[in-house]
């Protein structure tokens, strides 16, 4: 069984460094799922790994496209799976890193459109769970979808709730709905996050924006002004500076808006990751001991058996 270690977390928290540390430990390569870092003209504003960082470990999908190219999440899913398939020939473990939530999901789960949770179903199921316990949920799922019941972690009541809810909504077996996307994912996924207090994170983001400005974000954005109508550039760090170039905002205000919008994006990311119950967290500014503990935790979750 091959293992994909996915490093997730909000913007500015230090995912690049952790991914490189892990890649070096496992002597492997890194696949990026940061949709903004695909574009080679946007190095500074997307905080793409530096030349030095890129030389410490082999990265894929960094600066591999031009902003002029259209690239969909579906194309990325296909390209990333192909790349993983290739890398797994020589490596038992590969690192995935990036804060683009849907792009990570595309790689680990697939993009087929499962419906969002239905509130009434969730309430109904929660009531059953509170009253009759997890056994009742297991029973319901087993009856509705014996195939999925055979593979699901049936002690995880959230997984049971989710599957039953989807079956009730679609009238189809959950196993059929996810089979489409799961076929090509014959790897074990281990998700690792970095956590920090909100204050620390926001401070890091503000500091990082100042550093981007020092590194030449203004010049980078100026060079891209003619493409400002393209989707790739309708993003934090560029959209604000285009308003400055257009005379709508002064520079200080534009920079403070970049900080504000970056913090807002981080907040959305935090909300998304908080909903997941399978992310193992490492604290910001981790020590060698913390890293060793993490490696120990990973080795307990790595699947070495081959089926």
UniProtKB/TrEMBL annotation:
Record-listed substrate binding positions: 11-16
Name of the protein described by the UniProt record: tRNA dimethylallyltransferase
Similarity annotation: Belongs to the IPP transferase family.
UniProt keyword Protein biosynthesis, yes or no: no
Binding site for ATP: 9-16
Gene giving rise to this polypeptide: miaA
Keywords, comma-separated and alphabetical: ATP-binding, Magnesium, Nucleotide-binding, Transferase, tRNA processing
Gene Ontology BP annotations: tRNA modification
Sequence segments annotated as region (Interaction with substrate tRNA): 34-37
């Amino acid at each position: 069984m091959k293992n994909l270690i996915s490093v997730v977390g909000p913007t500015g928290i230090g995912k690049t460094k952790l991914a490189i540390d892990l890649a070096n430990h496992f002597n492997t390569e890194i696949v990026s799922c940061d949709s903004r870092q695909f574009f080679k003209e946007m190095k500074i504003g997307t905080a793409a790994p530096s030349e030095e960082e890129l030389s410490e470990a082999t990265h894929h999908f960094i600066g591999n496209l031009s902003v002029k190219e259209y690239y969909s999440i579906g194309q990325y899913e296909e390209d990333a799976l192909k790349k993983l398939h290739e890398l797994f020939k020589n490596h038992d473990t590969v690192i995935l890193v990036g804060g683009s939530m849907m792009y990570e999901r595309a790689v680990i789960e697939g993009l087929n459109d499962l419906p969002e949770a239905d509130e009434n179903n969730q309430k109904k199921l929660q009531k059953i769970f509170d009253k009759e316990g997890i056994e009742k949920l297991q029973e319901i799922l087993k009856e509705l979808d014996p195939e999925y019941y055979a593979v699901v972690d049936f002690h995880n009541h959230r997984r049971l709730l989710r599957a039953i809810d989807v079956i009730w909504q679609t009238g189809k077996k959950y196993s059929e709905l996810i089979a489409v996307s799961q076929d090509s994912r014959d790897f074990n996924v281990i998700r690792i996050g970095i956590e920090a207090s909100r204050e620390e994170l926001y401070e890091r983001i503000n500091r990082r924006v100042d550093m981007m400005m020092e590194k030449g974000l203004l010049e980078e954005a100026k060079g891209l002004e003619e493409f400002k109508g393209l989707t790739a550039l309708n993003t934090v760090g560029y959209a604000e500076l285009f308003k400055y170039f257009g005379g709508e905002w002064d520079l200080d205000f534009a920079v403070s808006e970049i900080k504000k919008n970056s913090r807002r994006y981080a907040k959305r990311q935090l909300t998304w990751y908080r909903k997941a119950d399978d992310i193992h967290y490492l604290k910001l500014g981790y020590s060698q001991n913390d890293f060793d503990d993490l490696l120990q935790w990973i080795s307990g979750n790595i699947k070495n058996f081959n089926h």
